[in-house]
Design brief:
Helices cover 24% and strands 27% of the residues. The protein is α+β, with helices and mostly antiparallel strands and 142 residues long.
Length: 142
């Protein structure tokens, strides 16, 4: 499971995932990628599930890069606990995703294989995403 080795604070405020991404919208490592279309919060468990889906669908032929990292601890109170008595303990790790941010990149496979794998992996993510290629990402810059 992805999580940071150490953080400045044990608990964080909720915050909001909002806005559009400026610098992580282009493909850097691979030819194909998965891009978010809306701001959201992505948990470490979903990132790992998506990574597994991609690598199993590609049958370990190509290479997969994860462009996001869960660095925010999300706290939850236990079930059936009364209000008050402070904030709950850290429950899981998540990262804030902005609209237009590249989540995963793939290289070393054909266009058809990459598209199948990304569309299968996109079903694991709870917000709308888009399959992008190097040509599409290059056009969006201008």
């Amino acid at each position: 499971m992805l999580q940071p080795k150490r953080t400045k604070f044990r608990k964080y405020q909720k915050g909001r995932a909002q806005g559009k991404q400026d610098n992580n919208t282009r493909l850097v490592f691979g030819l194909y990628g998965l891009k978010s279309l809306r701001p959201a919060r992505l948990s470490a468990r979903v990132i790992e599930t998506t990574r597994r889906t991609l690598s199993r669908r590609l049958k370990r032929k190509g290479q997969v890069w994860i462009r996001v990292f869960p660095d925010i601890s999300v706290s939850q109170k236990p079930a059936e606990v009364r209000m008050g008595k402070g904030k709950g303990g850290p429950s899981y790790w998540a990262c804030r995703i902005q609209a237009g941010q590249v989540l995963f990149e793939i290289d070393g496979v054909s266009h058809g294989e990459a598209k199948e794998a990304v569309l299968l992996a996109a079903q694991k993510i709870s917000f709308p995403t888009q399959f992008i290629t190097e040509k599409i990402a290059f056009k969006e810059k201008f």
